[in-house]
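Renewal narrative, Specific Aim 1. Our central claim is that a sequence can be written position by position from structural information alone. The example that follows is taken directly from our test logs and has not been curated for this report. It begins with the structure tokens describing the chain, in the order in which they were read.
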């Protein structure tokens, strides 16, 4: 099934917005891109769709806000930047959603939250309440407190866990690539986009899954892993390039390339 048909048929959609989607070339937050993305999400909501946003960007927002520490590799400074940046990120989302009369709610999660049955239930109930009341949940990993033992590690995985917990109809991952290729398109001009994937686990054994993006923590491997997670619950996933203007609108119109993960 093509991406535009999946979107048309889906009512509950999780949209993951990657750091590269929000970042300008200088590494700062591109508010124009964020506003463009929010405009499209609100258009979906007017059509009756319910949307949860999983958003990266706390680190780049922190660096942009305080303009120091960005060269420090100490984990304490990285977590401090995320603490500062999360405020900036949510304030930016609040301001752009306010233009549509839509409220947002923040949820910061760790791996432990999904593994503990009681926390799991409370997360789900909070999500259901927010969405039922027309509030858009903005979810991110709680980077300021996450250590290796409780760290999810990337927002592709966080988005997949959220989609499964909520019982979403569709997961849309917006990254810095058009989809999955049979080989690295940056190194191979003859690389071919794979439009439909029915077995993400099998595909991961046949293509190069190494490398990460400039601002993000995930690469192709995390996207294939996310696809495996949601496909196991019967949820399809679409991977597309978030830097494309009006990407959600163009996906709906079948105007842009993407990779659809259907599962078996």
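The sequence written for that structure reads:
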């Amino acid at each position: 099934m093509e991406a535009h048909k999946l979107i048309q048929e889906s009512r509950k959609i999780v949209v993951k917005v990657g750091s590269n989607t929000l970042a300008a070339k200088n590494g700062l937050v591109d508010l124009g891109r964020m506003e463009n993305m929010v405009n499209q999400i609100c258009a979906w909501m007017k059509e009756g769709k319910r949307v949860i946003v999983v958003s990266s960007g706390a680190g780049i927002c922190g660096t942009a806000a305080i303009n120091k520490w960005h060269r420090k590799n100490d984990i304490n400074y990285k977590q401090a930047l995320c603490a500062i940046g999360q405020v900036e990120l949510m304030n930016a989302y609040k301001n752009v959603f306010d233009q549509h009369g839509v409220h947002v709610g923040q949820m910061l999660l760790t791996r432990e939250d999904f593994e503990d049955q009681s926390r799991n239930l409370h997360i789900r109930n909070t999500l259901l309440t927010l969405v039922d009341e027309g509030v858009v949940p903005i979810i991110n990993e709680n980077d300021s407190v996450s250590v290796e033992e409780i760290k999810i590690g990337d927002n592709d995985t966080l988005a997949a866990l959220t989609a499964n917990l909520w019982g979403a109809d569709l997961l849309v991952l917006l990254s810095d690539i058009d989809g999955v290729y049979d080989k690295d398109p940056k190194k191979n001009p003859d690389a071919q986009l794979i439009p439909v994937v029915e077995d993400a686990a099998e595909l991961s054994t046949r293509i190069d899954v190494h490398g990460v993006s400039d601002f993000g923590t995930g690469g192709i491997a995390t996207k294939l892993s996310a696809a495996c997670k949601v496909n196991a619950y019967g949820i399809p996933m679409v991977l597309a390039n978030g830097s494309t203007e009006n990407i959600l609108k163009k996906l709906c119109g079948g105007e842009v390339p993407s990779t659809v993960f259907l599962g078996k």
